[in-house]
Write a structure and sequence with these properties.
With 382 residues, this protein is an alpha+beta fold. The chain has helices at residues 27-37, 65-68, 71-74, 122-131, 142-151, 157-165, 215-219, 256-262, 274-288, 304-314, 342-347, 352-355, 371-381; strands spanning 3-6, 17-22, 45-51, 56-62, 81-87, 102-106, 109-119, 170-177, 182-186, 195-200, 206-211, 223-227, 232-237, 240-245, 268-269, 272-273, 295-298, 322-324, 331-334, 348-350, 360-363. The chain folds into two domains: 10-269, Glutamine Phosphoribosylpyrophosphate, subunit 1, domain 1 (4-Layer Sandwich); 275-381, Rossmann fold (3-Layer(aba) Sandwich), CATH 3.40.50.2020.
């Protein structure tokens, strides 16, 4: 009997994507397109919250961005402000209740929040807050921030956000939306990326964008302005942009995996081209581990830039000897007659004419447990 199995993906999954728009008549449409460009950061669920200056409108669902945000859905998200979030769970169950942005109505008004990161003291704060009477609706660590903002004694929202974030530890790049303001916040260590962009229409009308990666700006023909600095809160309102440094400086600890694997090669992350970083890693690999071989073959897609770097440095020809199936789902039906290396073959297939009889250098971006890597090597050898 055939059985349905989850695809064994031997990679870190610790990322989400956020995108915010301020001052554009089609804010939710732009947020949707931004999330589309950030889809690689999370395929589990997605959501958008928009504001027309009076009310917040929300839509969240399980699945990918394209499936969720049909024209009829976007039409119900009016206004010139919006934030969006695409999720791969790092804390909390894989369920709709944990989809973001989270929206609350508290003494600070209506607030929506989208979070990319992990809080290391979330469980401790959750216990404390529940003991004080807070009721949690989700299993996500993001909700801890929401409750701390609501309980803050600060007189304004920016003060409450700073107050809340100075009580949590860990990585966070946050977008917060009110009826008429957009906040972009990055943790003091700068662990996860967050970038500021500007979109100018032919008539000279300016809108502001914030996103996890600059590739979202490219799709929208927007200009990359700068990174949100570690420990900085950027408040965007009708009065303009205000920069608030809410936390004392800490040593910067940027996540290396943004450059190794998470981010798209066409993005600028931590002020540096991801593609250049990956090519340089390939060059350094060739210097440190030279191998006498006939061809350099990447494990697509994320292994391609590093393999290009290895080939350029070693002067060994680069060949696309493995083809990736981009349409594989999260689960698959395996036939009753077991197929050797079935999960890997479903995703990758070698071009026999290119690699047969050749000495092959296989280059991948990362090895976590090594289980998938062993299967790929075995498949190529066979």
């Amino acid at each position: 009997m055939s059985q349905k199995l989850a695809f064994a993906d031997d990679h870190f999954h610790d990322e989400c994507g956020v995108c915010g728009v301020f001052g554009h008549p089609e804010a939710s449409n732009l947020a949707y397109l931004g999330l589309y460009a950030l889809q690689h950061r999370g395929q589990e669920s997605a959501g958008i919250v928009s504001s027309d200056g009076k009310e917040l409108y929300v839509h969240r669902a399980m699945g990918e961005v394209e499936e969720i945000f049909q024209p009829s859905v976007l039409a119900q998200l009016p206004g010139s402000l919006a934030i969006g979030h695409t999720r791969y769970s790092t804390a909390g169950d894989k369920a709709l209740l944990n989809a973001q942005p989270i929206m609350i109505d508290c003494n600070k008004g209506k607030v929506a929040l989208g979070h990319n990161g992990n809080l290391t003291n979330a469980a401790e704060w959750r216990r404390r807050l529940e003991h004080r009477g807070s009721i949690f609706q989700t299993n996500s660590d993001t909700e801890v921030i929401v409750h701390l903002i609501a309980r803050s004694q600060a007189r304004n929202l920016s003060g409450a956000i700073g107050d809340a974030l100075n009580q949590v530890e860990g990585a966070y790049s946050l977008l917060l939306l009110t009826q008429d303001e957009l906040y972009a916040v990055r943790d003091p260590r700068g662990f996860r990326p967050l970038a500021l962009g500007k979109l100018t229409t032919p008539g000279g009308f300016v809108s502001w964008l914030v996103a996890s990666e600059t590739c979202a700006f490219d799709l929208l023909n927007a200009q990359y302005i700068r990174e949100i600095e570690p420990g900085e809160m950027v408040r965007i309102s009708k009065s303009g942009i205000e920069s608030i440094h809410f936390a004392p400086e800490k040593p910067h600890q940027q996540c290396i995996f943004e450059h190794v694997y998470f981010s798209r090669p066409d993005s600028i992350i931590f002020g540096r081209s991801v593609n250049e970083s990956r090519e340089m890693l390939g060059r350094l690999l060739a210097q440190e581990h030279p191998v006498d071989a006939d061809i350099v073959v990447p494990v697509p897609d994320s292994g391609v830039p590093a393999a290009v770097g290895y080939a350029l440095e070693s002067k060994i020809p680069f060949r696309m000897g493995l083809i990736r199936n981009h349409y594989i789902g999260r689960t698959f039906i395996e036939p009753s007659q077991a197929i050797r290396n079935f999960g890997v073959k479903l995703k990758l297939n070698p071009i026999r004419g290119l690699i047969e009889g050749q000495r092959v250098i296989l280059v991948d971006d990362s090895i976590v447990r090594g289980t998938t890597s062993r299967k790929i090597v075995r498949m190529v050898r066979e």
